[in-house]
Amino acid sequence: MGATNGPDPLLQIENLRVHYGAGRQQLNAVDGLSLTVGAGQTVAIVGESGSGKSSAAMALVNGLAANGEWEADRILFQGEEISRHELLRLRGRAITYMMQDPSGALNPVLTVGEQIKRVLKYHTQLSKAEREEQAIELMERVEIPDAASRLDAFPHEFSGGMQQRIVLAMALAPSPVLLIADEPTTGLDVTVEAQIFALLDRLKRELSMSVVLVAHDLGVVATSADEAVVLYAGRVVETGSVAALFQQPRHPYTMGLLRCAHDLHDENVLNPIPGRIPGLGERPQGCVFHPRCAWKTAECEAAVPELIQLDGQSVACIHHENLTE
Ligand SMILES: Nc1ncnc2c1ncn2[C@@H]1O[C@H](COP(=O)(O)OP(=O)(O)O)[C@@H](O)[C@H]1O
Ligand code: SF4
Ligand SMILES: [Mg+2]
């Protein structure tokens, strides 16, 4: 995905591959993801569960499971080519990660204030008193009511939405330039989900931050993201501005995702794509989407479709010019 006319690129990854070891086999969970995140931009990685979104996000912050490995052809940060090691050094400081499940990110036996202060202690030079002050400020930033008096509360004393705000406060503590948010509203109801997205959007602008937003639903990124990469079974099937993907989706999978995209204020409209995403050991030959595709021909099974560059969009479908719903 190019950013020729957009903001200066902050992070660029070329041809990211993530694989997991299963016995002597290496199975690809992400197979060639290229990503450009512009300064101040939100780029969404979208796909159903099992697409490889978390694997890609975790690779960027070096948080893969012990049996996972990743490589990329090139990594550029603020225009400079950097090594994997240099990327790792940015983790937790310039690049922070907010995981899907707040219960995995919060320690149940420590107060939320203590947890935020520990991040500040580790990543900043602030004094004890300044850390206390900053922790309150961060809780206010993520709109926790009565922040000062809630500093000594434990995670279980907060609702799911409020817990996710604490996780966000911890992710913001080192003043990152890039926040990676992995399905930050999983398990929350639609009203709370909308509030969290609005908050993320406001903070991104206030703090001049970029965001990589991982989501399984195109609907939820409609108003929050600038660009999107659609991932299916580890492969990029389409990229483009969110506006373009909504207006003219070019890949059958994106079309399917749009049909089941839910409106944040209306949970009802869901029209799932028939079939299911293949597991790591079951990926078909040729176009990985062909078992679920209504436009499939014999050619689709013969070779992996290349990502074709179109005007501001790219699509990996050999029949993209002849698709009508
Ligand atoms: N540690 C692991 N070992 C083996 N397979 C894994 C591991 N983690 C994830 N996978 C597999 O990799 C694929 C992509 O998973 P994931 O990145 O979690 O996708 P998503 O976040 O889009 O749901 C899935 O098939 C999943 O089962
Ligand atoms: S290449 Fe063929 S199977 Fe794949 S999405 Fe396009 S039409 Fe469907
Ligand atoms: Mg995931």
Give a written overview of the molecule:
This protein has 325 residues and is an alpha/beta fold. The protein folds into 2 domains: 9-94 and 176-322, P-loop containing nucleotide triphosphate hydrolases (Rossmann fold, 3-Layer(aba) Sandwich), CATH 3.40.50.300; 108-175, no CATH class. Helix content is 31%, strand content 23%. It has 12 helices and 13 strands. It has an 8-stranded mixed β-sheet with strand order 7-8-9-3-10-11-13-12, sandwiched between helices. Strands 1, 2, 4, 5 and 6 form a 5-stranded antiparallel β-sheet that branches. Strand 1 and strand 2 form a beta hairpin. It is globular, with a radius of gyration of 20 Å.
Structural class: alpha/beta
| Mass-distribution shape | globular
* DSSP strand content: 15-25%
What is the C-alpha radius of gyration, as a whole number of Å?
20 Å
The CATH topology of the largest domain corresponds to Rossmann fold
**Unique bound compounds:** adenosine-5'-diphosphate, iron/sulfur cluster, magnesium ion
Fourth CATH level, the homologous superfamily of the largest domain: P-loop containing nucleotide triphosphate hydrolases
- Low-pLDDT runs of 5+ residues are none
CATH architecture of the largest domain: 3-Layer(aba) Sandwich
| Percent helix | 25-40%
Distance between the termini: 26 Å
Strand order of the largest sheet: 7-8-9-3-10-11-13-12
CATH class of the largest domain: Alpha Beta
Number of domain modules: 2
N-to-C SSE string, H for helix and E for strand: EEEHEEEHEHHHHHEHEHEEHHHEE
Mind summarizing the main beta sheet?
8 strands, mixed
Please count the helical segments. 12
Overall average residue pLDDT: 92
Number of E-type strands: 13
